[in-house]
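Contributing new records

If you add data, match the layout below exactly. Sequence lines come first and carry their own label; structure lines follow with theirs. Keep one chain per record. Anything else will be rejected by the validation script.
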Amino acid sequence: MRYPDGGGLTAEQRKRREEVRMRAVDLFDEDVKVPCVARELRVSEKSVYQWRRAWKAGGCGALRSKGPSGYDCRLGPHLQAKLAMWLEEGPAAHGWSEDQVWTASRVRTLIGRKFHLSYSVFGVTRLLHRMGYSVQMPARPAAERDEDAITVWREVTWQEVKPCGRRPARSSVSRTKRA
């Protein structure tokens, strides 16, 4: 799975790491000792040992970047297009008539019904984000919303009912000390 928002490495970061590994190959060819390679490349000795082992087993190709880590999305572009079409139809068209809100749980159920695939709610959230969907927010505040009443509640009522910090108690939990 690719995370453009910081969850994984970018293509540039992968390229830089591969360059470091290729520099390590040059040092392996020169018979430079592992601690010296690690110090020069500013990496751990453990990484250098792993790289050297992979290099001996498979040559330079074993140290080349294999692309982004993780799994590819189980819904390919054509299936994502179908899902987007069904989402545009609205929840009522798929059996949720009580309101017109797509939740991650409902989309998960829709994916299960239509594609016979199981996703977690979090997986659906990531999928929808990759497809360009965002959290639904109302276009305007509710007509019944009373800002003055909300302010009074926050400043007066909440201060009265809010729990006051930690309760005073003995701090010793030792069985050997007498309180």
